[in-house]
Amino acid sequence: MTALRSWSGACTTPPEIGLAPGLIAEIMAEEFREIPRSGFPIALQPMIVPRNSYLELLSATAGLISLLRKAVVNLADDRPGRMAALGIDPADCPMFVPDEDFELRHCADMTRADVIIGPDGPKFIEFNVSGGFGGMAHFLLYQQAWHRIREAAGRPAFVAVDAFAQQARLIETTCAELGVPPSAVIVGTPRDWGPGTGSRVFDVQVNALRRHGVHATQLEFDDLLTGIGLPGNLRTHLGIAAFTVQDAATVGYDLSPVRAALDAGLLLVPSQSAWFLHTKKTLALLSEGQPWMTGSETELVRRYVPWSRVVGDREVWWRDTKHHLPRLLVDRKDDFVLKGATGCAGEEVFLGGTISDEVWSCLVEDAVRTGDFIVQERVETQPYPLDLLAESGEINRISATPVVSPFCLGGRAAGCYVRFTDEGHQASTIGGVTARRTCLLAEA
């Protein structure tokens, strides 16, 4: 298998950038003005990998997304059957439309994978399938900032794929399918990023789409119906669902205007059926293997997905030996991570090696009882060296523990967002205000 050193490149020291830290900080401050979860400490380098590794990561992302969608289609013959097979709570899915063909065609339209770089390269630990996964605006601004920085330093261009070019293509093809001009409304609120957050996090996205020839706007929920022409004829037929039902419940905003817009003919991408891909149970089913999978599909999952299973009172194969799953998890807890099937932002993620035997046993018992958890074999994260600039001007070199997040829009993989902490944090997932951020680029 590919060793880390060859996959990530020569990563004993941070990559050379060639520009003074103060100038890097100035460019970052300009790009990230009014953007939440940015600022000090600032990573003085992006994460840079060889071009072949970058292309491999994008290819694996697109391949696995396609396979997740195929798994959903093969779960059952209809929507109720799929919901039953995955144990989906109908309350989590209030935005279905009657057109089941549209639902399935567009369930995988917007995805952000979370990837750990292990000893043998990338391992996909989960997929966030929705329009509200976050990170695309941050990635775009990092991409722009590092382009400016390398130009100022006289360095060769980095290799990266523009996520918004791919999203614009998705909008264009979907609008052509609907027989309308290419336009879309981003349905969402900056309140998801915290109180007092301004509109720039959406302005960046709207302007990026417009640069690619798509008429885009952003509307808050209270403004949605009048903004798309209701009551009356729809002025906009396609929406980007930049929200989740769970965020709405947490932050406290009303999604009934979205339901009313759908009833009046607005369509959203990704469709509500994205939840079938978002649940980690679907990834676990692929890891366990399904009778319809081809040899190449089985190999794709084996290569890039850690051993994962839906937790239940049953027998499983692990490392070529048959085990009673609950007993295996209790006996070998340091090898495993328990994850809530639909938890987001690090919620319901438990690393066996960081929890007492008693608490872990209770968690396993609860996971078996509810049927709402998966287990993954823990991947040993390989550190990546980065320099962090503090607001005081002090520079600290850390061994970053990164989670790399490639986007996939309309079946095409695009740029990679990165969240990281220092090496002391095992990366089962990384998010929230404590994580630092940069992006992954490739060598020219």
UniProtKB/TrEMBL annotation:
Protein name: Uncharacterized protein
Species whose genome carries this gene: Amycolatopsis arida
